Amino acid sequence: MAVERTLSIIKPDATRRNLTGKINAKFEEAGLRIVAQKRIQLTKAQAGEFYKVHAERPFYDELCDFMASEPVVVQVLEGEGAIAKNREVMGATNPADADEGTIRAEFAESVGENSVHGSDAPETAAAEIAYYFSGLELVG
Ligand code: RTP
Ligand code: MG
């Protein structure tokens, strides 16, 4: 399987509860390497641009407010099949449906405040990494 990179975000519900280290341990235990990482404060407009694919969904406004409510940690994870592997480690969107041992099963508070974001395909991973990181911040 090819080595991939994927964009991960540790969301405000998790940064607020000081869970960055515990979540990063889950990634590393699964064989994902954190190759770039920074803590940033999104504006609502920046959150809205990032999640614009969901613009017509009923939860969009709430999602944008939530993502801009407190700082997030954005990161690039690398590894074999990293996009799918990350989504496995994250678990289902709704923590009530997430498998035991996944990040969302252990840490998420609700379907909206669910601790992590992960890219869902190679095209979205490339675009999402470029949204947050410049080439200079990514060691080849
Ligand atoms: P993400 O994009 O954040 O990695 O999550 P995902 O693929 O598992 O879920 P997606 O369908 O892309 O939804 C994006 C985010 O919107 C919030 N959401 N809220 N209140 C609701 O019913 C609802 N549904 C989705 C979650 O924060 C979800 O991760
Ligand atoms: Mg998604």
Radius of gyration from the alpha-carbon trace, in angstroms = 14 Å
Q: What's the total helix number?
A: 7
Strand/helix succession: EHHEHHEHHEH
Strand order in the largest sheet: 2-3-1-4
The first-level CATH class is given as Alpha Beta
- The proportion of residues in beta strands is 15-25%
The percentage helix is: 25-40%
Quaternary state of this entry equals: single chain
Record field, number of beta strands: 4
Instruction: Give the full name of the CATH homologous superfamily.
Output: Nucleoside diphosphate kinase-like domain
- Class by alpha and beta content: alpha+beta
List each distinct ligand once: ribavirin triphosphate, magnesium ion
Mean pLDDT: 98
Under CATH, the topology is which? Answer: Alpha-Beta Plaits
Biggest sheet features: 4 strands, antiparallel
Count of all domains: 1
Residue windows where pLDDT falls under 50 for at least 5 positions: none
Overall outline: globular
CATH architecture: 2-Layer Sandwich
Subunit structure: Homotetramer.
Protein name: Nucleoside diphosphate kinase
Function: Major role in the synthesis of nucleoside triphosphates other than ATP. The ATP gamma phosphate is transferred to the NDP beta phosphate via a ping-pong mechanism, using a phosphorylated active-site intermediate.
Subcellular location: Cytoplasm
